[in-house]
Amino acid sequence: MERDGDQLSARPALEAEGLRFLHVTVGSLLATYGWYIVFSCILLYVVFQKLSTRLRALRQRHLDQAAAALEPDVVVKRQEALAAARLKMQEELNAQVEKHKEKLRQLEEEKRRQKIEMWDSMQEGKSYKGNTRKPQ
């Protein structure tokens, strides 16, 4: 029985020694690397918050796309909007082509007019170089 009592009294002394050792070890660790640990914890918290919001948004977008793919009205509206956008872009392209063709026609007309003027001046015996130049 005494032996059991000795073990019980020895056990708190060992626990106190272990707690003291733990206190010294943790204290020296915090004294040495305390600011690094604090900044690392803050950084981990911020990264975790950013990743969790992005992951939540990604899940929501995925669920919305899955729901939209199943609804025929949404699909039809999306296709109609896409067709309207394509038609608008094609009309703009056609307008640009017409403008370009008109510019080319004007340039050809100007060249033809210059050749006629040059021919007329040559027929009259004049120098054609001075007559064809436009003042800028």
SSE diagram, text form:
Layout: H1 2-70, H2 72-124, H3 128-132
What characteristics describe this protein?
136 residues; single chain
Short précis:
With 136 residues, the chain is mostly helical.
Explain what you see.
The chain is mainly α and 136 residues long. It has a domain of 69 residues. The protein is 93% helix and 0% strand. The protein is built from three helices and no strands. The longest helix has 69 residues. The radius of gyration is 44 Å and the shape is elongated. The termini are far apart. The model has no long low-confidence stretch (mean pLDDT 85).
Give the radius of gyration. 44 Å
Main beta sheet: strand number and arrangement?
Answer: none
| Beta-strand content estimate | under 5%
Shape type: elongated
What is the CA-CA span between the terminal residues? 122 Å
| Quaternary organisation | single chain
Structural class: mainly alpha
On the 0 to 100 scale, the average pLDDT is 85
